[in-house]
Amino acid sequence: MSFNNSDACTNDVSELFKTVAAFYNPTGEEEKLIKWITEWMTKHSFGQNLVLSKNDTGLIYKIQSTNQNDNRDGVLLMCHLDSDHLADSEEEASNIEWKEENDKLYFNLDGDIGLDDKTGVTVILNTLLKIEELKKQNKLDRTIYILFSVQEEVGQKGVFRIPKETLADIVNECSFVIAVDRMSLRHPLQQRHAVVNYRKVPTVIPTHHPTFVNSLDIAAKKIGEEQGVDGIDSDFCSDILEIRIRVDSEIIAPKLIDTCQNEEFKEKLQNVLDKYNEITNEISDAISKLKPIERVSGYHDYPRANRYAIAKQLHELIYKDNLEIYKSCLNGKYDISCLNLSLDYDEDNHYISLKELYNTSLILLHFITQQL
Q1: β partners of residue 54
Q2: Cα–Cα distance between 339 and 76 in angstroms, integer?
């Protein structure tokens, strides 16, 4: 199936973005956007695919592959529904005036309109329009999970709350996780990139390096982005980091302890896991007492910084110091890698590139449909 940069396609993106941008969605007030997305998903035949719907977690959908004999690995696409740079009120957000010029969509608001992460929401929804076509034609060869998370801007609390059983189901069916979010300031050339390391925790495992990023790079060049996609590190945080930490600590490490015969490795793993569980329980208790808009701490401060340090220690113990043990014990069954695919924009310019939004959808679609 071919995907083109037609005017009609960018018109779809334009209407989607204007609709999403009109929502007032500060952290903790994502309910109206959740309701609208739920209705949109039902309208586009995805309603029956709903797996989870909670205001303190978000929405998760599972779209089953139409090729039951296909063994290609599933993909989780994700974005977050809260914004921390947006209009001052619901009334202001709903009265944005728009002007389209070439591929740019200008807005008249003096302040921000929540491009982080309304752009990511728009890209995921636009990608789903094409997935809908693939599904109708019985050409969807991968199972696709979709996660619309909440409270990302205050410590990734939505992803923190995803039930362990749901996360395990995702890991059982998906090998690749792609979040769509804003460009990191850490890229020296400010080009489109994929963040593959947050807070010194690698999010792409060695068995998927460099194939994962290379596949996105090929997809970007295929649609005419000559610079392609570059993998970079970031000192910030994201939902991707939370997914990586929870998969390693709550799924991979316990599986290794259950199946591995190397007692020395198991003892080291259990010691680190005990530290992780202690700090994570402390954070969980703190979150239960906080308002949605409140953080447990800054990501440089206790207890979050300590949890990231423990996660790094655990990741290195599994994938660096004992990679061969990991491979032999789990035999690739739980291999999963995560990254953040960037979008380039500057809210101070008071416009968004429709081509940038649509091209990001194209990259996702080419990734989903290509052989890895």
Answers
A1: 58
A2: 11
Q: What is the pLDDT of residues 70-124, one digit of tens each?
A: 666 899 999 999 998 888 888 888 888 999 998 999 998 766 889 999 999 999 9
Under 8 Å between Cβ of 47 and 41: yes
Chain position carrying tokens 């068995």: 207
User: Does the predicted TM-score (pTM) go above 0.90?
Assistant: yes
pLDDT digits (tens, 9 = 90+) for 239-272: 999 999 999 999 999 999 999 999 999 999 999 9
Pick left, alpha or beta for residue 28 (phi over 0 → left; psi -120 to 50 → alpha; otherwise beta): left
Q: Which token pair is 180?
A: 């769509």
Residue 1 in this model has a pLDDT that exceeds 60: no
Q: Are 137 and 65 in contact (CB under 8 A)?
A: no
Average pLDDT of the chain, as a whole number? 92
Q: Classify residue 136 by burial, with Cβ atoms within 10 Å: 0-12, 13-18, 19+.
A: exposed
Distances (CA, A) of 15 to 9, 19, 100: 10, 6, 11
CA dihedral 176, 177, 183, 189 (to 10 degrees): -20
Interior angle at CA 232, CA 325 and CA 79, nearest 5: 90
Sequence letter at residue 296: V
Helix (H, G, I), strand (E, B) or coil at 203: coil
Q: What are phi and psi of 327, to 5 degrees?
A: -65, -45
| 67 φ/ψ angles, rounded to the nearest 5 degrees | -110, 95
In this structure, what are the phi and psi dihedrals at residue 79, rounded to the nearest 5 degrees? -155, 170
Burial 34-63 (b: 16+ CB within 10 A, else e): beebbebbeeeebeebeeeeebebbbbbbb
Report for 27-41, 93-107, 111-125, 221-235: range of highest mean pLDDT: 27-41
Specify burial of residue 288 (Cβ count, 10 A radius: 0-12, 13-18, 19+).
exposed
